[in-house]
Design goal:
Length: 424
């Protein structure tokens, strides 16, 4: 790439995409209705304890859902307490997991119930294949267990059961020990063992219900459903299909450069969702699906990620500022537990966005950087607004769900050589 080409990036414009919209208008009421209506159909004894398992990051209004679920349980005379259910997250320590919950707005002072955070587990059974099933000892000591989680496509595998209630029962409540066992054995047995392990727990232990949360394409809560244990597996399979149909996607294909402004655990388990980027690298299977990206450039790490950069290995290029914010101990622990050391590999990184983009353009097999099929997104959860290069002009005109908001213009950098904010 000669010096004349270095400034010759494609002209870009801001585009708005219409996504699936089904946001609940009153989340507190929807939560009250789901939990209270369900409890009316079940016999519970006042004074009984309930371990409420929560822990996934990036869920819209999770603290509100949690607070109203706890209130509904209390109204039945039950004694709920919170158990972190996040496998090895939070550095695989009790204090770390308590800290993750606090950053989600879930603490004893806010929720009004104890948060019992420890990493002790009990082996509660085995699959025929020999897989050991672990569960939080504190959760098992309760009279009932409730799990609250979002049902969505997983970032590591594809199956009838992916991320949701069953995964929280088997991996989340399994703490670091259970998470490591499931991930390790899935290399040869596939992640279908999540469904098999969940079936054992649901049959043997007093699971009161699971509260399934579904999001629309904008990341808003669209459905809150209390799922009984006897139908949890079958219901979750149906809910996963609904969630997959609602999720946002990049509406272009064969992209030369994908720029991702924000990356982090509050966005996706792998920092950026492979179901959106189309790129996955893993011992249980690699894939490259739409939007078929040649080069991925990740610009920054979210503060809420707490230094955990697991998944950064799926990028080709990043910035020195992102690398400087990494907590490698947390990143490595998460990646190793998930049997994915490749996802913790730090890409080549540069001081400025401009230099990073030059490297992306220069290694994508382009005749000229000006011809790059470039898409820039805020993060893989925020796909309403994106910046795209002019090569997609006809594509935008032909798609009624796409609207160009600004004229075509050169990419805008600040005085430090970094991209200016992506704004409408």
């Amino acid at each position: 790439m000669n010096n004349a080409d270095k400034q010759n990036f494609p002209e870009v414009a801001l585009v708005r995409q219409t996504l699936h919209h089904a946001a609940l208008s009153d989340i507190p009421q929807a939560t009250d209705n789901a939990v209270s209506d369900f409890l009316k159909s079940r016999q519970v004894t006042p004074g009984q304890s309930v371990a409420v398992a929560v822990g996934s990051r990036g869920i819209s209004d999770l603290a509100t859902v949690c607070a109203h679920s706890l209130a509904a349980l209390k109204q039945q005379g039950l004694r709920p307490f919170i158990v972190p259910a996040m496998g090895s997250h939070g550095g695989a320590t009790a204090e770390g997991q308590r800290g993750v919950l606090e950053k989600l707005g879930i603490s004893q002072s806010v929720m009004g119930v104890p948060v019992v955070a420890d990493m002790d587990t009990v082996c509660v059974g085995h699959l025929k294949s020999g897989v050991k099933i672990y569960c939080s000892q504190k959760a098992l000591e309760a009279d009932h267990i409730v799990v609250i989680n979002r049902v969505k496509r997983h970032t590591k595998f594809q199956a009838d059961i992916e991320s949701g209630l069953c995964k929280m029962l088997t991996i989340g409540l399994g703490k670091a020990q259970g998470a490591e066992e499931i991930h390790r054995r899935a290399v040869t047995l596939t992640f279908k063992i999540i469904e098999q392990a969940a079936a054992v727990i649901l049959k043997q232990y007093n699971i009161l219900f699971g509260l399934a949360l579904l999001e629309d394409g904008y990341g808003n809560l669209a459905q809150i459903e209390a799922v009984p244990p006897e139908s949890m597996i079958a219901t979750e399979k149906l809910l996963l299909k609904s969630a997959a149909n609602m999720m946002g996607r990049i509406p272009f294909d064969n992209i030369d450069i994908l720029v991702v402004d924000r990356f982090g655990k509050d966005i996706s388990g792998t920092g950026m969702d492979p179901n959106v980027t189309g790129r996955h690298r893993d011992i249980v299977g690699d894939y490259c699906i739409a939007p078929h990206v040649k080069r991925i450039f990740v610009r920054d790490l979210t503060p809420s990620s707490d230094g955990n950069g697991n998944g950064i290995g799926l990028a080709d290029v990043t910035t020195k500022r992102l690398v400087d914010r990494l907590d490698l101990e947390k990143t490595y622990k998460n990646a190793i537990t998930a049997i994915s050391p490749e996802k913790a590999a730090v890409p080549i990184h540069f001081d400025t966005d401009r230099k990073a983009l030059e490297v992306c353009a220069g290694t994508a097999g382009l005749e000229s950087p000006a011809a790059a099929r470039l898409v820039r997104i805020k993060d893989t959860k925020s796909l309403e607004l994106m910046q795209v290069s002019s090569v997609f002009a006809r594509w935008i005109e032909d798609d009624p769900k796409l609207e160009r908001l600004t004229p075509w213009a050169p990419m805008a950098f600040d005085e430090n050589g970094n991209l200016k904010p992506l704004e409408a």
